[in-house]
Write a structure and sequence with these properties.
5 strands; 3-stranded antiparallel beta sheet; 4 helices; single chain; mainly alpha; lectin; two-stranded antiparallel ribbon
Length: about 200
């Protein structure tokens, strides 16, 4: 009986403590929120919120940067780009450099946006499809195909077979994504191996 009373008292103390903390939090927020709004209204009334950077600009090492120096560096970079561009344009106009107009965009030719293969083309490549430029961020692979013919299995890992029952018909297909071979004599690294087994 006394053990039950001790548990009740400790729970009651915990609840009272939490309620006290909650009341103090509400009191703090009640006093803090008007102060935040008053500060925001003061900044909005004098127009400092609409101005760009009311405080001076500091670098990561807290060294003060003169805005005129930034503008000088920007102007100098633009001037250098103009000089180099003008020189290159003069060389193109004089005939020293001839642009190859037949080349086109070589990046698109080397790195197509999509690759589509029929079953016969895929089989002719020994069931291997090379992605010329690899996968970029946000890329996806869509495989449309038929699984292999179903075959009976007595010990499948996807269903329980009781003694005396028929074997379970299982079909499967496999897809593997490998990296490029980097070392001679070693298999290329496996990035993804997908081999689902389907109960039929």
């Amino acid at each position: 009986m006394s053990n039950h009373r001790v548990k009740f008292v400790s729970r009651l103390t915990l609840i009272q403590t939490l309620m006290t903390v909650f009341v103090l939090y509400l009191l703090f927020m009640t006093l803090q929120v008007p102060l935040v709004f008053k500060t925001a209204l003061l900044y909005a009334s004098d127009g400092s919120l609409s101005d760009a950077l009311p405080r001076p600009l500091y670098m990561a090492d807290s060294v003060r940067v003169d805005p005129r120096r930034i503008m000088r560096e920007t102007r100098e970079a633009a001037r250098q780009a103009l000089v180099v561009g003008k020189k290159l344009w003069e060389e193109v106009e004089s005939g020293k450099i001839r642009p190859d107009l037949n080349k086109g965009n070589t990046t698109e030719q080397k790195c197509p946006n999509s690759i589509v293969l029929s079953e016969s083309e895929f089989g002719a490549r020994k069931w291997i499809m090379e992605l010329p430029c690899g996968l970029t961020l946000g890329s996806h692979i869509t495989v449309v195909g038929k699984p292999r013919w179903a075959h009976p299995e007595r010990d499948p890992k996807i269903a329980l077979v009781k003694e005396g029952e028929e074997a379970v018909m299982v079909t499967q297909f496999m897809m593997e994504l490998q990296g490029l071979k980097t070392v001679d004599g070693e298999d290329p690294p496996r990035i993804l191996h997908f081999n689902p087994r389907l109960k039929r």
